[in-house]
Design a protein that fits this description.
With about 180 residues, the protein is of the alpha+beta class. The protein is about 50% helix and about 25% strand. The chain folds into 2 domains: about 110 residues, PAS domain (Beta-Lactamase, 2-Layer Sandwich); about 30 residues. Helix 6 packs antiparallel against helix 7. The chain is globular, with a radius of gyration of 22 Å.
């Protein structure tokens, strides 16, 4: 027999909902992390972006297991960013932290295999009670295929005038 809730007792209903949420949340977060097509992270707002948490997507994206990067065990995330892009990434994040806004950018990383990948990152700072930014929380995905398609389209448009190229872009977008 199913236990019924006392609809006239808000405290009883609140306890029931709280119990349900706690039961769901235990499996919810790991399952969501498993299904993400990239990596979610929390890192310290330090010079190396020292990782505190990385989802399992780090292995597919970077070639490094989360345990290689968490706590800078094998290397730090900053080491993976292509050297020419590091200042751009640092400035974008520092500006967003200073303005208390989200950051969003694309840049290149060098995977463990040596492959260069374009990534898209979005995140925000987490501030302590003194309004000091202590962590960055975010998400990073591989956008290399999209960047390659854009580059290929630009190359194929090089011999055409602007109107023809835009028409081709429109047809490409409709055909996908």
């Amino acid at each position: 027999m199913e236990k019924t809730q006392d609809a006239t007792n808000p405290e009883s209903e609140l306890k029931h909902l709280s119990s349900e949420v706690q039961g769901i949340s235990g499996a919810l977060i790991p399952n969501l992390m498993h299904n993400l097509p990239g990596m979610a992270y929390r890192c310290k707002n330090d010079a190396q972006w020292s990782m505190v948490f990385l989802s399992e997507g780090s292995l597919e994206l970077t070639g490094y297991a989360a345990s290689d990067l968490v706590g800078n065990h094998l290397l730090c995330y900053d080491d993976i960013i292509v050297e020419e892009d590091r200042d751009f990434v640092r400035r974008a994040i520092d500006t967003a932290v200073e303005n208390r806004t989200q950051f969003q950018m694309e840049y290149r990383i060098r995977a463990k295999s040596g492959t260069i990948k374009w990534v898209w990152e979005k995140g925000n700072a987490v501030y302590d009670k003194h309004n000091t930014p202590v962590y960055l929380d975010g998400f990073i995905i591989d956008v290399s295929a999209r960047r390659k398609a854009e580059d290929d389209l630009k190359k194929s448009c090089a011999g055409y005038d602007r109107a023809e190229c835009h028409q081709g872009s429109l047809l490409l977008a409709i055909g996908s």
